């Protein structure tokens, strides 16, 4: 059942590089004694550099927990996580924070933006926090890509839900992170805005060589990815490449059964 | 509904406690004031009652009409009382002054010690604490405190001056406790047998006659008999009434203390009310969804309103209980502190917690809390049920309304106008009250205008911190101005305390500068010699001796007599000075050379009182030359404090009143004579005159500054309570904001903000809030301090104590940071994943 990066890497020239994220024997449990909940029961997975991977699974399958552990937002109970050449497990809060700052981008389902900052300030926020200068070319390119040029001076409350998520995408892209984790990025959007956001994500993978890992429960959203991995009861149970909404749905149905 | 409210309260115990603490501090202070003053009153009453137990009837002089002669009872009255029916024994009490000579050969203390009689037998009310009462005329007792400070013990020989300044020696046979007598506590006292007390003090009369009734005679019967025997002109009271009167008189003293402390208590309560108001407003805003849900499932507006009020009532009750405990402890501490500072307070009395104090504290706590929660409760009723379904609570946007601007402008203009009117008035109490009223109205204007001020002020004070703290600093600045109304209320609470502190600092600073400037200008002396008893005089020989010493440049002696001046029978001090080189008192017009024989220069107040102007004639009744008619040569400002109100030439004065002694001497050393050399010479010259007290200008200034510093410290300390409460407010607002922004903080943490950076962000926000409050407070305090000092005296030297004010600002900022410690820790500790999932 082990899915190694090697298998994936063999599939295309773009995926030759070392995997961006690797997890080995990842376990995570909450509580103690009788009430212990095992959210992850030993997950081995790797995510190729420059690929768009979706994580799917029924509610309670552990997909969000997996993402939080991979991104260094949560501590693991056992196993290892590597982002590039850095092992996350065992890092202190300070090192983890700096790692997130330098190598990871985030897009959340909701509440992605600080209400007090303008769109542009929100986009530049990760760089500001890190004390880095934005690459102006990259900034322009990202802003063009997500189509926010005339919205840069607005505050989040003056933007539509779709626009807010596009700002979040731009923010995730601007620091050129090793990997972007997206947690249900289209969960709160209507289908048209959702499709837009997903296209931007795919474009950024194709054109900027970005690595993206996305948690979703929406088969259509998952179909934008290069590869979909499926989780059930804290275990990786299946995966498909070059998914279509139908193939994703079929796999899900099989898992539910 | 009630269950839901109480469950909610229990779920947020920490918040409940923090909120309660603000009110509890205010209530505690007020309750403490009552406990303290009640305890003191109770102690006094008990002591007076104990003293009065010994006395069945007390005879007191009728209130005197002549200011010059204090009320007294003639010696003959004692025999009449003793002869009255039903009187077993009667003793007259003698009290006057008899200056104790210290071990340095000079009269001890700033004022002469009191001399009093220690009576024998059952009527002795003097509490001998060691040794025995004086039995013979060669024995005396001394009060414990004086004995301690002057280094005397039982068995020593002591020297005391009688009223004519003749020395007498006594054997110290005992020490006594002055008890609650404030005057004796201040001057110290020597006790003698009655006959000796009369000789020493020169008082042949009594201040009081105490009577013991014979067996079987009631107090009232004895009183009637004594009153009948004495005839009119006396107050004859029973022992019981006597004790009551004494207690009442002391009650009036504690009444002043109570009023003063309550004033500070009210300021604290006002600040606490602001804090509570803000807390409930934020709570209601945060629980919009919860309230909407309640409305959805059928709660009426009234029930929602009631639930907020119920919550505030519980908070109020809890605060009051906490406040009572706190007040009890505070008063206990205050009593201990006061007693250890040597205040003449009754000791060994348990703090008195009366039902009145309990009722008042509970009522105050509940009323203020519920009152402050009324507006937020009304806001809660406006929550629409549909709000429960909205996914995200909208940020309240603040727009500057026309009503607010008009209202603020109205208050500000009215306040400024009234203040200006007060400043324009003649200096005096009325003007000060007008300025105070103007200040209060202006402050209300600031309260209304506050939310508009927050953003620009935040940008101003936040500029540097934002620069220094980087991204956290910038975010903090944005956050501080994000909810202007909330920030304004939070900071205004701090502004109250800082305004009052600055005001006091400015006023005392100005008074200090004005005083020292005057001192330098009109009192340019190195040393001052005065008799210990201000009404006494010093022999002229002392001045003559000083004039002969080559190290001294000038010795000016002043001589005075109180006598009738003018036609209306008014009495003034008429006096003169011995001319000396360099002594040129300032007159309104012209120089002191105008003072020629047959003329007088008079203070402006004398001129006003008698309706005189320069060139008019003034009559002065003299001792030796009959009534003389003098020409007014000039007037002067009496505040200069140097010349007697009616000053005549030296030669004339001797002719009018004879060889009166010097009542004070101003001495200047020659240039180049060291301070210690000058002092040694002056002291050596004064040594043979035990009552001649030498003070240097620096000492006079030092004493004044010391008492001023003491006052500033006490007032600042008392205002510190209001500041402490406002800091609780900042902590509370901040922790509620942190709670509100849980997801935001989590997002920032996910994006790479480290824990220290997150903490720094909140610290800077608190710093900005603190600085805004302090800045507004300083501006108001300086402005109204200026206005207030204008109303005090003419030509004040306005002074802003910059370092002190900077310290207030720095402390406010620092305090803000301290207030942020706990909320910031909580925010930084929160798990990112958990926080992202909330809401």
From TrEMBL, chain A:
Coiled coil: none annotated. Keywords: ATP-binding, Nucleotide-binding, Transport. SMART domains: AAA. One of its GO terms (molecular function) is ATP binding. One of its GO terms (cellular component) is plasma membrane. It holds the Pfam family ABC_tran. Residues 21-257 form the ABC transporter domain. This is Putative ABC transport system ATP-binding protein. The lineage of its organism: Bacteria, Bacillati, Actinomycetota, Actinomycetes, Streptosporangiales.
TrEMBL record, chain B:
The keyword Membrane applies. It holds the Pfam family MacB_PCD. It is a multi-pass membrane protein. Residues 17-228, 487-674 form the MacB-like periplasmic core domain. Residues 263-383, 718-831 form the ABC3 transporter permease C-terminal domain. Its main location: membrane. The chain crosses the membrane at residues 16-36, 261-285, 314-338, 358-381, 402-425, 431-454, 492-511, 710-734, 766-788, 800-822. One of its GO terms (molecular function) is transmembrane transporter activity. The keyword Cell inner membrane does not apply. Belongs to the ABC-4 integral membrane protein family. This is Putative ABC transport system permease protein. It comes from Streptosporangium sandarakinum.
């Amino acid at each position: 059942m082990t899915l190694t990066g090697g298998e994936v890497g063999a599939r295309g020239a773009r995926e030759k590089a070392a995997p961006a994220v690797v997890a080995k024997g990842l376990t995570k449990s909450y509580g103690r004694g009788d009430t212990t909940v095992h959210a992850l029961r030993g997950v081995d997975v790797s995510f190729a550099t420059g690929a768009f991977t979706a994580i799917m699974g029924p509610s309670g399958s552990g997909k969000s927990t997996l993402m939080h552990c991979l991104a260094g937002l949560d501590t693991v109970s056992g196993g290892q996580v590597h982002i590039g050449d850095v092992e996350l497990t065992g890092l202190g809060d300070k090192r983890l924070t700096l790692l997130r700052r330098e190598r990871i981008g985030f897009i959340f389902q909701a509440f992605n933006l600080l209400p007090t900052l303008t769109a542009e300030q929100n986009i530049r926020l990760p760089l500001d926090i890190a004390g880095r200068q934005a690459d102006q070319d990259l900034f322009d390119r990202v802003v063009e890509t997500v189509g926010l040029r005339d919205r840069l001076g607005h505050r989040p409350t003056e933007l539509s839900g779709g626009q807010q998520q596009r700002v979040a995408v731009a923010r995730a892209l601007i620091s050129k992170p090793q990997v972007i984790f997206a947690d249900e990025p289209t969960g709160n959007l209507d289908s048209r805005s959702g499709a837009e956001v997903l296209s931007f994500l795919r474009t950024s993978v194709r054109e900027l060589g970005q690595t993206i890992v996305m948690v979703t429960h929406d088969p259509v959203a998952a179909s934008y990815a290069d590869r979909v991995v499926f989780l059930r009861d804290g275990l990786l149970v299946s995966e498909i490449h070059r998914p279509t909404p139908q193939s994703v749905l079929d796999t899900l149905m099989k898992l539910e059964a | 509904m009630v269950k839901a409210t109480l469950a909610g309260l229990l779920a947020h115990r920490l918040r409940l406690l923090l909120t309660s603490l603000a009110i509890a501090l205010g209530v505690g202070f007020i309750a403490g004031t009552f406990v303290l003053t009640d305890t003191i009153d109770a102690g006094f009453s008990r002591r007076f009652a104990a003293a009065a137990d010994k006395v069945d009837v007390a005879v007191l002089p009728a209130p005197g009409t002549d200011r010059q002669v204090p009320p007294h009872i003639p010696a003959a009255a004692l025999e009449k009382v003793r002869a009255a029916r039903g009187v077993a024994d009667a003793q007259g009490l003698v009290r006057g002054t008899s200056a104790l000579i210290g071990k340095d050969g000079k009269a001890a203390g700033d004022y002469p010690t009191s001399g009093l009689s220690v009576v024998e037998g059952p009527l002795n009310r003097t509490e001998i604490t060691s040794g025995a009462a004086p039995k013979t005329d060669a024995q005396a007792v001394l009060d414990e405190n004086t004995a301690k400070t002057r280094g005397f013990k039982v068995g020593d020989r002591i020297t005391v001056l009688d009223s004519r300044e003749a020395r007498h020696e006594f054997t110290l046979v005992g020490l006594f406790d002055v008890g609650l007598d404030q005057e004796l506590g201040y001057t110290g006292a020597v006790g003698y047998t009655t006959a000796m007390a009369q000789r020493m003090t020169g008082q042949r009369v009594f201040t009081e006659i105490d009577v013991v009734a014979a067996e079987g005679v009631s107090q009232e019967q004895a009183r009637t008999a004594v009153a009948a025997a004495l005839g009119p002109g006396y107050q004859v009271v029973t022992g019981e009434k006597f004790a009551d009167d004494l207690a009442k008189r002391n009650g009036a003293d504690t009444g002043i203390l109570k009023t003063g402390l309550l004033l500070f208590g009210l300021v604290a309560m006002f600040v606490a009310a602001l804090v509570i108001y803000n807390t409930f407003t934020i709570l209601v805003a945060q629980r919009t969804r919860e309230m909407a849900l309640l409305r959805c499932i059928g709660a009426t507006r009234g029930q929602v309103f009631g639930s907020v009020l119920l919550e505030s009532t519980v908070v109020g009750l809890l605060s009051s209980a906490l406040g009572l405990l706190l007040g009890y402890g505070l008063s206990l501490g205050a009593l201990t502190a006061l007693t250890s500072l040597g205040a003449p307070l009754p000791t060994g009395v348990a703090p008195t917690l009366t039902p009145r104090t309990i009722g008042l504290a509970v009522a105050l706590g509940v009323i203020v809390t519920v009152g402050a929660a009324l507006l937020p409760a009304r806001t809660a009723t406006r929550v629409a049920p549909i709000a429960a379904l909205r996914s995200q609570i909208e940020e309240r946007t603040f727009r500057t309304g026309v009503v607010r601007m008009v209202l603020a402008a109205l208050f500000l203009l009215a306040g400024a106008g009234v203040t200006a009117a007060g400043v324009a008035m003649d200096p005096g109490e009325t003007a000060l009250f007008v300025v105070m009223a103007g200040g209060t109205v202006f402050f209300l204007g600031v309260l209304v205008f506050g939310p508009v001020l927050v953003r620009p002020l935040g940008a101003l004070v936040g500029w540097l911190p934002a620069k220094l703290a980087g991204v956290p600093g910038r975010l903090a600045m944005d956050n501080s101005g994000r909810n202007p109304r909330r920030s304004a209320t939070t900071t205004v609470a701090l502004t109250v305390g800082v305004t009052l502190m600055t005001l006091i600092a400015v006023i005392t600073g100005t008074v200090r500068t004005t005083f020292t400037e005057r001192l330098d200008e009109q009192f340019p002396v190195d040393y001052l010699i005065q008799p210990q008893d201000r009404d006494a005089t010093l022999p002229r020989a002392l001045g003559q001796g000083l004039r002969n010493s080559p190290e001294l440049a000038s010795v000016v002696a002043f001589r005075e007599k109180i006598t009738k001046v003018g036609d209306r029978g008014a009495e003034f001090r008429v006096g003169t000075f011995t001319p000396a080189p360099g002594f040129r008192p300032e007159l309104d017009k012209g120089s002191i050379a105008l003072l020629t024989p047959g003329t007088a220069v008079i203070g402006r107040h004398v001129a006003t009182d008698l309706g005189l102007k320069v060139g008019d004639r003034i009559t002065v009744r003299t001792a030796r030359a009959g009534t003389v008619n003098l020409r007014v040569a000039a007037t002067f400002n009496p505040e200069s404090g140097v010349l007697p109100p009616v000053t005549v030439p030296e030669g004339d004065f001797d002719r009018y009143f004879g060889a009166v002694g010097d009542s004070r001497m101003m001495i200047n050393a020659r240039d180049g004579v060291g301070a210690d050399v000058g002092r040694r010479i002056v002291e050596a010259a004064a040594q043979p005159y035990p009552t001649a007290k030498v003070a240097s200008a620096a000492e006079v200034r030092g004493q004044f500054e010391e008492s001023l510093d003491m006052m500033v410290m006490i007032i600042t300390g008392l205002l510190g309570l209001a500041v402490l409460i406002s800091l609780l407010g900042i902590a509370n607002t901040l922790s509620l904001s942190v709670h509100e922004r849980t997801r935001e903080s989590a997002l920032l943490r996910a994006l790479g903000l480290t824990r220290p950076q997150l903490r720094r962000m909140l610290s800077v926000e608190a710093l900005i809030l603190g600085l805004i409050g302090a800045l507004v407070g300083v501006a108001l305090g300086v402005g109204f301090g200026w206005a207030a000092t204008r109303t005090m005296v003419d030509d004040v030297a306005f002074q802003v104590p910059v370092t002190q004010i900077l310290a207030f600002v720095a402390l406010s900022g620092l305090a803000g940071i301290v207030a942020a410690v706990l909320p910031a820790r909580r925010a930084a500790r929160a798990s990112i994943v958990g926080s992202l999932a909330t809401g």
